[in-house]
Amino acid sequence: MNITSRSNRVPEVIGSFWIIKVLATTVGETGADYLSTNLKLGLSGTSYIMSGILLLALFNQFRLKRYVPVSYWVVVVLMSITGTLITDRLVDELKVSLVTIIIVFSIILAVVFAVWYANEKTLAMHSINTPKRELFYWAAILVTFALGTATGDYLAEALKLGYLQAALLFGAAIAAIAIGHFYFRMNAVLAFWLAYILTRPLGASIGDLLSQPAKNGGYGLGTVGTSIIFLCIITSLIIYLSLKQKRVDHSSIDW
User: Contact, 128 vs 9, CB < 8 A?
Assistant: First the structure.
């Protein structure tokens, strides 16, 4: 019996990847607000709880040594919530300005990429096939969530652009990157990471637009309603991807 090797620890970058990514970032925004505000856990309490759960999820992810849709996307959702909480705590508790946060996390992300590339000579998604590369990968993703949260809040709230306008702006920027990649030969790795960073403020803006009350420029669905809707969609897509992976694994076995 010959089983095809599938050592990559992250998913293929196709349409479903980007859909779930945006939905996960939206849940990160609304989920963090729900836990800290509606459940009255506070930013500190919520941060400690979610950080602990995230570490457990990461432990399981590294233990699997391959891409498993449920495990991978649970980590992404938890990182989205944790990244949001990191930024919210810096702003609300430590009174750090959004501009400062954007600058600092941009530098941190650049350092992560620089160290990653110096060690592995690649930042490509399809090459995440060792624990070391996956560690760099998740470190970069956590920073992108914190950076994206600050960027989205800065445009929508500090500059008073509004949630809808901010979402349209970030969506247009992602579309421009896609056009640059597919039609003007923009480097695939650069295009991926730029788009990945921008999906965070896009998702955050969508989450705030749907959940915030009308007086704040939102549609008033609330954090609970918005989170449930998006979690149901994410769950449905993960189930589909899991079943698809099982069919592929089965077909790759030659008896």
Answer: yes
